[in-house]
Amino acid sequence: MKGLITLKLIHAEYNPTHNSIDINHYNGYILRIDCNQAESGIGTTPNSQRYFNALAIDNPLGYARLALDGEI
After folding, report:
1. What does the domain layout of the chain look like in residue ranges?
2. Which of left, alpha, beta for 26 (phi over 0: left; psi -120 to 50: alpha)?
3. What is the pLDDT of residues 31-41, one digit of tens each?
């Protein structure tokens, strides 16, 4: 159909048990990003670590975008 836009819904949430971001894709795929592994290559200060923690908890989809784009 012309002009029809298909939305690809994604739900992301922080999983405190595994310290990870769990992303549920619209077609049933589940992606888990390990926060410890994503942040392993960078040197963080207590302040920057606090920022990453707040981002993972408050905006898990934003954290996932940073991790998957290689911005972390």
Report:
1. 10-69
2. alpha
3. 999 999 999 88
